[in-house]
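$ ./design --mode recover --in tokens.txt
reading tokens...
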């Protein structure tokens, strides 16, 4: 493999690693939001509870 070929491979690997890092960040942020809503739902009683359920539905609504 030439020096030029190894640089292209390194650039491809770096781009793949950066893409995985972005994807992992998105997954962690979404998981954090779901956990926070779950905790809020567990602690909430009364008229505020439907608002949290609506927020969860909006989070997972695929029509938007």
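writing sequence...
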């Amino acid at each position: 493999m030439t020096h030029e070929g190894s640089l292209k491979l390194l650039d491809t690997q770096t781009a793949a690693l950066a893409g995985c890092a972005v994807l992992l960040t998105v997954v962690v942020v979404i998981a954090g939001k779901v956990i926070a809503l779950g905790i809020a739902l567990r602690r909430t009683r009364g008229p505020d509870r439907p608002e949290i359920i609506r927020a969860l539905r909006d989070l997972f609504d695929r029509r938007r």
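exit 0
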